[in-house]
Specification:
It is a single chain. This protein has 20 helices and no strands. It is mostly helical.
Length: 480
């Protein structure tokens, strides 16, 4: 138990550092690219992201989680996953290469034909490192993964900015994506001691496919859910402007979500798997992870909503002001998203990939059906986003129902773990917004709100003697 606590703490701290630095660097490069490029450039890339993500999910096929869920995966299993990914990745790229004209025709935008064929190279490169990344993930090598991410975001950001400044427009965004993937794959080979052999036997992968296939379907549903607006807005409003405005808001929201969700994802499944064999079992471990996630997620995302307008306008200019209101709305969804990630990892760690798949498919069907029906009914983008937020937050009740069945996590306990942090965060943001409303300068108002909100949130939790805050402080000072 002591070893597990140590691994969890180290993983969370390295995950927090890594994801925080990645998002800071990503934000810096993103601001520069937003100043150099137009909404239509970002909208065009958003139109292709869903195809790349779906192909990447098909290529990976849930094997990363399947390997991580095993206590001691064999070399043969890693080798089978490696060659499966390579073969499937090459086949999928050829299919998408020849489907590129249909994609351009669907969006009524001919420039997407060559852009798609270049951007899709990224997931072919990615398939060469899936087994290595699975090894790092299963062995809780969070520090190495942190170095990989920081290196990749820096190199790809520099390439994207240089190309955009030379007038390459959306080609700079595509190149940035490909370079990021290539760097991650190269460093995964460097850090992972595992190497493939030429003895190609896919039978071990096939044995895992019963478990991983359901994770694959869930991953596809997740990608379709996350990219529903990217696909449908480009179809509803050709030219990419509306999709670009939404894409900008969603990008900043996703950056904040990834900082917290990535930190939780990096340790949740392996830790919950190990805790299943310990006394008193996974419920206490899960509740601690849930409290920590809420402790971080609510102030971070609701704080971003508080400064959204100043953040967007001051950093990226007036041409992106439309994104600010959308960002404020999406942050409400984002505040709960890492919690959903944690619940999903719980279900996977209990070997219930069918449950994970079913929940993901139902959610995806409701998202797509709702957005299409709202558009057909004449509703605007704002109403579509409200529907998306309400549905995804409400879906947390479905996850909790399954947590109650799998580890006997009571509704009352889940409520007590989540609601206090939500209440504190909402109260702090309301007080901060009211107290700084008279500040006229956008930069000054944003700075005041960040400092005041952080001080009020941590101060109020300290006065309330929140255990998770004390544990975090104790661990940091212990390490010092």
């Amino acid at each position: 138990m002591s070893s597990l606590k140590e691994k969890t703490a180290k993983g969370l701290i390295w995950g927090a550092f890594s994801n925080g630095m990645v998002q800071v660097l990503g934000a810096a490069f993103g601001v520069i690219l937003l100043k150099l490029l137009d909404p239509s450039d970002h909208g065009r890339m958003a139109a292709l992201v869903v195809f790349s993500n779906l192909a990447a999910a098909l290529q990976e096929s849930g094997f990363t989680a399947a390997l991580a869920n095993k206590r001691e995966p064999s070399h043969e299993e890693y080798n089978a996953v490696f060659w499966f990914n390579v073969l499937v990745g090459l086949v999928l790229y050829l299919m998408l290469f020849f489907a590129a004209p249909l994609i351009a025709q669907f969006y009524k935008d001919p420039v997407l034909l060559p852009l798609a064929r270049f951007a899709f190279i990224g997931f072919v490169v990615s398939c060469l490192g899936t087994a290595q990344r699975a090894w790092l993930f299963g062995h809780l090598q969070v520090r190495q993964t942190s170095i990989m991410q920081l290196s990749a975001i820096t190199l790809s950001g520099v390439v994207g900015v240089i190309l955009a400044s030379l007038g390459c427009a959306y080609w700079g965004l595509a190149a940035q994506s490909v370079v990021y993937t290539a760097t991650m794959t190269s460093l995964a080979w460097y850090f992972s001691p595992w190497r493939p052999t030429m003895h190609i036997d896919l039978r071990p992968a096939w044995k895992m496919f019963g478990f991983s296939s359901k994770l694959l379907v869930n991953s596809l549903a997740f990608q379709l859910n996350n990219n529903a607006f990217g696909v449908l807005l480009n179809r509803f409003y050709p030219g990419g402007h509306v999709a670009g405005i939404y894409s900008n808001a969603r990008k900043w929201d996703d950056m904040a979500i990834s900082t917290i969700g990535g930190m939780v994802y990096g340790v949740a499944q392996p830790v919950l798997r190990e805790s299943a064999s310990l006394t008193p079992g996974p419920v206490n471990t899960f509740r601690k992870l849930l409290r920590f996630t809420c402790f971080v997620s609510f102030p971070a995302l609701l704080g971003l909503a508080l400064i959204a307008e100043d953040f967007i306008v001051c950093l990226t200019g007036e041409k992106w002001r439309e994104s600010a209101q959308l960002l404020q709305m999406l942050c409400l969804y984002g505040a709960f998203s890492p919690i959903v990630t944690l619940y999903s990892n719980l279900v996977i760690s209990r070997g219930r990939s069918t449950v994970n798949m079913t929940i993901g498919l139902l959610n995806c069907a409701l998202v797509w059906g709702g957005i299409i029906l709202l558009h057909e009914g004449g509703y605007a983008l704002r109403e579509m986003v409200v529907f998306y937020i309400v549905l995804n937050i409400s879906w947390l009740l479905v996850w909790q129902w399954w947590a109650r069945r799998l580890i006997h996590l009571r509704w009352r306990h889940a409520f007590l773990d989540i609601f206090p942090f939500l209440l504190f965060a909402v109260a702090v943001m309301l007080v901060t917004g009211w107290a700084t409303a008279a500040v006229s300068n956008g930069w000054l108002r944003m700075g005041c709100r960040i400092i005041m909100a952080a001080a009020l949130y941590l101060g109020s939790l300290y006065v309330a003697r929140a255990k998770i805050l004390r544990e975090s402080i104790d661990y940091i000072f212990k390490k010092k």
